[in-house]
């Protein structure tokens, strides 16, 4: 199934059913880590899982990191869903912005990608585990031998999903596509060059909220660049007097916006809905503003934008 197309003037077109399924799978990975009941995407069943090693100085811990879902109608179709930041150890890894070489499991890639060491550590370190996350993921591929693989994740999970997607494209090419949500930037210009030369824009799509700060981190001032193609939404807490970043970053809020936007043409939605993070708040979904934003200026720009939109309402 084709998950998107790109051109010079438009966002990629997203398959509504697939994209919502991947967003649901990403939320399920969080619930699994927390020991809570989780919802499988419609038409899929959960069949396996994997872990990762979160290191801190000379210690660390093994943590649940992802779920494998199998299509009920087409058993050869799998989803690999990575969870995002949900522990103190994750936060430590998130802010390790010093870069390191990305080395594929097999083969080679040029230029040598440079990626954030915190993200790569979770993906590559073995620590106290029998296998690293990377080794577990390729073992799962050998176990289930999918004919079609969809890779996804939210926030930190989105970053990990892109590390895996490039590794897979170089080490074991197969029919695989990545739609990820609210991803931070993973690596430097070398990472961007290698990734975009290896994976077609239609096969790696970042879906995010324009008003969310996480996709602008680590700062581009430190040399970080995004990869793949981009699909923007735009939502925030209505009437907020300071940025509610958790609400803007929430995968559930993002899923709500997508569930309204993706069936429409164009795939955008203007409307309101209850905030998942704080239900007494109301979220406002608008059309994304044109152009790029410097991450340090986003607060002031958002306040000006909100006042303008509220005055016009």
From TrEMBL:
<dbReference type="InterPro" id="IPR029058">
    <property type="entry name" value="AB_hydrolase_fold"/>
</dbReference>
<feature type="domain" description="Fungal lipase-type">
    <location>
        <begin position="80"/>
        <end position="220"/>
    </location>
</feature>
<dbReference type="GO" id="GO:0006629">
    <property type="term" value="P:lipid metabolic process"/>
</dbReference>
<protein>
    <submittedName>
        <fullName>Lipase family protein</fullName>
    </submittedName>
</protein>
<dbReference type="InterPro" id="IPR051218">
    <property type="entry name" value="Sec_MonoDiacylglyc_Lipase"/>
</dbReference>
<dbReference type="Pfam" id="PF01764">
    <property type="entry name" value="Lipase_3"/>
</dbReference>
<dbReference type="InterPro" id="IPR002921">
    <property type="entry name" value="Fungal_lipase-type"/>
</dbReference>
């Amino acid at each position: 199934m084709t998950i998107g197309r790109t051109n010079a003037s438009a966002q990629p077109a997203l398959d509504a059913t697939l994209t919502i399924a991947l967003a649901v799978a990403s939320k399920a990975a969080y619930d699994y880590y927390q020991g809570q009941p989780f919802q499988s995407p419609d038409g899929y069943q959960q069949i396996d899982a994997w872990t990762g090693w979160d290191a801190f100085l000379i210690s660390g811990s093994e943590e649940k990191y992802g779920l494998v879902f199998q299509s009920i109608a087409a058993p050869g179709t799998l989803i690999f869903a990575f969870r995002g930041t949900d522990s103190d150890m994750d936060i430590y890894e998130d802010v390790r912005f010093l870069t390191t070489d990305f080395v594929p499991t097999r083969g080679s890639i040029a230029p040598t990608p440079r990626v954030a060491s915190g993200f790569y550590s979770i993906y590559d370190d073995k620590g106290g585990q029998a296998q690293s996350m990377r080794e577990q993921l390729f073992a799962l591929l050998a176990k289930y031998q999918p004919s079609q693989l969809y890779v996804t994740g939210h926030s930190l999970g989105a970053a990990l999903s892109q590390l895996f997607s490039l590794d897979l494209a170089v080490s074991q090419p197969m029919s695989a596509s990545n739609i990820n949500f609210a991803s931070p930037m993973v690596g430097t210009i070398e990472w961007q060059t290698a990734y975009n030369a290896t994976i077609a824009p239609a096969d790696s799509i970042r879906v995010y909220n324009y008003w969310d700060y996480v996709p602008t981190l680590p700062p581009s001032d430190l040399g970080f660049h995004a990869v793949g193609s981009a699909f923007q939404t735009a939502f925030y807490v209505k009437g907020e007097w300071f940025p509610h970043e958790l609400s803007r970053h929430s995968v559930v809020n993002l899923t709500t916006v997508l569930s309204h936007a993706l069936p429409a043409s164009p795939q955008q939605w203007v409307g309101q809905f209850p905030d998942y993070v704080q239900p007494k708040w109301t979220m406002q979904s608008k059309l994304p503003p044109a152009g790029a934003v410097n991450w340090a200026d986003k607060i002031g720009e958002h306040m000006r934008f909100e006042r303008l939109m509220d005055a016009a309402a």
